[in-house]
Amino acid sequence: MGDTVNGDELQSMRREQMRLRGSLAVVLLLTVCVFALFLSWLAMDGPLQPLLSVKVTVAGLLIVYVISAGTVAIYARWIRVRRDPLLRELKKHGTDAK
Amino acid sequence: MNTSPIAIACFLIVIATTLVITTWAARRSRSRSDFYAAGGSITGTQNGFAIAGDFMSASTILGVAGFAFSGNAESIIYLVAPVLGFSFVFLFIAEPLRNLGRYTVAEVVALRFPGRSVRVFAASSSLVVTIFYLLAQMVGAGALIEVLIGVPYRIAVIGVAFLMMLYVFFGGMLATTWVQITKAALLIVGVTIVSWLAYRRAHFDLDSLFDLAGRNLQTYTVNAGGGNIASPFSSVSLALTLSLGVAGLPHVLLRFFTVPNAEQARRSVFVAMAVIMLVFLSVQLFLSYGAIGFLYGDDAFFKDGKLLGGVNMPVIHLARALGGDALMGAVAAIAFATILAVVSGLTLAGASAIAHDLYAQVHKRGAVSEAQELNMFRVATVLITIVAVVLGIVFQGKNIAYMVGLAFTVAASANFPVLLLALYWRKFTKRAALIGGSVGLVVSIALIVGGPPIWVGMLGNRAPLVPYSYPALISMPIAFLVCFVAALLDSRANNAAAQSRFDELERRALIGADPAGTAERV
Description:
By secondary structure, chain A is mostly helical. In chain A, 79% of the residues lie in helices and 0% in strands. Chain A is built from two helices and no strands. The radius of gyration of chain B is 22 Å and the shape is globular. Chain B is mainly α. Chain B has 20 helices and two strands. The termini of chain B are far apart. In chain B, β1 and β2 form a beta hairpin. The interface between A and B is large, with 53 and 57 residues.
């Protein structure tokens, strides 16, 4: 049954998976860069130094953690809802593989 | 500092516990699979704790708090970026790695590009990262033990190296895993207790703790909260290094081979992220600010204006300030367990690369018995131990958090681009992997050596060749660019056989090596 996971639906799912991964990766990269620039701005030109502006820094840290956990949760949910059922179905019944 | 009997007792309890674990694991570790991957018998939750234990090194509670204590705000990036890095690992690396590999990361790259050359590169690059990281841990371990129980630095380094050798030599991955799980649990308990005591000392008022810390930073530190991240380049470079470097750390990645399927690999990352976020948040909110707030101004912790024991000791002193010698001893023992757990993971990663990749697959071309390979694994373990001792002594007194940054730089510039492109880019070729990865490795090391901490700080030159302490923002894009250009110029290598191999890799990354077990593995 090794070749039974090559149908159109599987290809579509793979493209969807890469698009989702790519989008979430962009969000993560932007988050890390913006946070680093924010800290740098605080340290260089801003009104407060990062370690001194404790509440601002801690809020930023929590926001980054939430974004990070959020991307993982979104991708994990997509796997549960979209990918795993498809692969289980393919395992059971195969597909009209090309 | 005076040697505390309680500290010595706590250290002995940690050592005894880890040796019991090793004895137990040694009875159960017989095969190659047992030594490299604990026979794939670790659950996702256990592996998550082990990943957290493997990842949160001495720099987490000692070096990062030390950075903050001296006013360097880059400590915040050290606590934020790796968490994002684990999200990258979750999205792109964990599942494919579990489905494609058995023992080492180089094996996965070699699956895409068969032959010896790519495997030699991937294994060598893994070794370089492992050695840098190991070096940081040995320096931290030697300093900690010297300060806390009065053992000379060199003897302390040798003692730690001997223990890590015992774990890996006899217990392999199973012993390493349970040492890491124990360490993660101890770390959570220790950090929680110190955090609660700091919060209580601040009369359960975070505002007053933060205000006190802010006042002390302005009064006592030169940087007053800025430090090395004042340059946007350095700040972004460090953040990207620590984020993407996680996805190239061999000792973390090979933990995904220890779980039975991809679902458990995903769960591993979930649990690891939760544990790491909990500890990091506590380190920032209570340990760093607590140390800044409660230690500055108290002469008991300073001599000639310098913190007793050196820059990495604020958390240990904070524990003493909050809970006396008993708590200080306990926290020091937890930090010691932290170091033992990480160095054993690193040693195992290095020994696997040498025994499985360089010896069995490259030198012997796969024609080697399991017993011969395991013998080489043990020889490699001893060799890495000797290297760790020598480097630990040579690099005595350097800030260990920075050294971890060096390991991440090489991981982000050499390992990560090759692994990511091998897994996901159809047009990537073997030659491109070799050239791009090698360029990333050489450029990252050259930039690190020419940067201020080594060229000026260690080698004594007047000005650095490269003005940046964290050069991954240069070396990583160069590695990716060279990979892309080399692959496009090498388009003839993208023949039907290469395409077919990539299709098979994609299929296997999704459903695992055994199609019959699709439902269970995915």
